[in-house]
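Follow-up to my post from last week.
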Amino acid sequence: MIDKLLKGAPRFYAWLGLLAFIIMIGAGAYLYQLLCGLSVTGLSRNVSWGMYIAQFTYLVGVAASAVMLVLPTYFHGFKPFRKMLILGEFMAIAAVIMCMLFITVDLGQPQRVLNVILHPTPHSVMFWDMLVLSGYLLLNLLVGWVGLECEQQGVEPPKWIKKLVYLSVIWAFSIHTVTAFLYAGIPGRHYWLTAIMAARFLASAFCSGPAILLLLALLLKRLTRFDPGKEAIRVLSIIIAYAMAINIFFYLLEVFTAFYSQIPGHMHPLAFLFSGHDGHGNWINGWMWLAAFLGLFSLVLLVTPSLRNNEKILPYALVMLVIATWIDKGLALLYAGFNPTMFDTYTNYVPSLTELAISLGVYAVGALIVSCLWKIALDVKKEAGTF
Amino acid sequence: MKRRQFLQAVMATAAVSLVPSLPLGAAPGRETFSEGSKALKAGRWAMVIDTRKMNDPRLQKKVIEACHSRHNVPDIEGPQEIKWIWTDSYDHTFPEQLNNYPAQTLTDRRFLLLCNHCENPPCVRVCPTQATFKRDDGIVVMDYHRCIGCRFCMAGCPYGARSFNFSDPQEYVKTPNPKFPMRMRGVVEKCTFCSEQLAKGELPYCVQASEGGILFGDLNDPASDVRKALLSAISIRRKPSLGTQPGVYYIL
Ligand code: SF4
Ligand code: SF4
Ligand code: SF4
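User reply:
Got it. Predicted complex:
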């Protein structure tokens, strides 16, 4: 099926070329970081994780979100998602690979990464995270690829694939739960030390991931005339609306506990995010208010049926939702985990240009993988008459 | 090449490229430095800092220099600094001791901070490679050859005791001590409770330089200096509510 990549429109190759160019820039930046160490990042002794780990966390959510298509299809026999299923599975593959790349570029000694396998450490959540992520990658590769092959040959997928699909649903929940446990079990970091972290992660994943998927699918519809189907779009946007409502609800629960209890440790990280500290603003404040506004506004658009079902308005709502959830997880989560610091002080963190270039490069790798896999999938569908 | 040969070749190359990532030397056992017969031993090593005596800036500087110079701790300015032992104010050292009107003797004092060698150390719990581990005598040490530089331990330590080598430390060590290993870029480091000194039968450098202001001994031994000191004066530990059981006590 790989041969499908060899026959494409010039537009497709131009797009791949652009991605390759961005990847080259990212690779150059990474080479620079390898030569100089992580000193070229904005990270510090007090804020020791930043952009990379934040993107990793966000993308685990994107990877897990494929389940929002798989679950209704296989557990409830909901047919309209069948056509898009493969897109979700292939996007999950790209997301997991990006996750792994973000972890790798964050390591101080990347060539030793196999030490995690050579010295398995069950009491470390990171060990489990590595296991569940690799497992999830494998599951999606198998399910996606074999499923597509069967579609090409016009046969039903084998029985064992169906079993793996059921497994992948449970697995998807596990990857984001375990990723939340990286944070939620750390004593002394108040913003992270909360039992609702895993639930919040899942809620934000199940709105942002499908939103990205739906946006890309709508884009495909314009570019290739691939139509995910009216019913699929309608139901997926309902799922997104519910997940976003739960996501915002969970966030407000955090806000309530912090500010009604008035316990300083709980209040300070949130106060820092929205208003800085000791009278000093911080660059994150504007982003947080933007996220709050976009999040709420997108929710209003999504819960109103007439607006949600309007294909002109829907993409805007989705874009706003993606930006809001990205700020929450891809910027704020890490920053507020480290501020206030362990000394009840504040340390500024701004990602450096190198960090941004590397991150962009990793995202471009993800886009490249999605583009190629989706191209294969769509061409196969065209031939098989399931387009 | 046949498929099988090809696979064999791949495996062989993979095996070779793996070798450098294996920890050099022996995997860390319960002890990190080979011990002579004079080695000091304890059930649970602990430190008692008499902050009344250790409030002297000259003495603090002496103690910090004793540690940093012997352990090749690089002298880096700015937020990417590396430090094993340092000083800070009362409210930064004990942020949980909220008091609007603390005694001036406390707010005037500077306190020495270092790794607490926690009995229940989160840094050990989170480390995915066991590069950070706890010895039977309570000392939390690191294997710099195994550390992958993921910095999970820095997120996990509630005391900010750990530093990461953002750049090559060699350039920042003015007079290296050849008897102590120099760390490499990309690994985490921290105070070791001078396990290498204990193996030789000597007390930690900071204790030696403290002119009696810092005591070091076995918490499990009721007759030890540290136990006697704790019995006779008021002492506190940093963030005790987190359940880490710090092994560094501060006499106020
Ligand atoms: S003070 Fe921090 S680094 Fe030291 S043992 Fe405790 S948790 Fe680990
Ligand atoms: S940075 Fe090194 S010591 Fe710290 S958790 Fe990672 S591997 Fe362990
Ligand atoms: S015990 Fe040793 S390593 Fe730790 S601060 Fe004192 S001198 Fe430094």
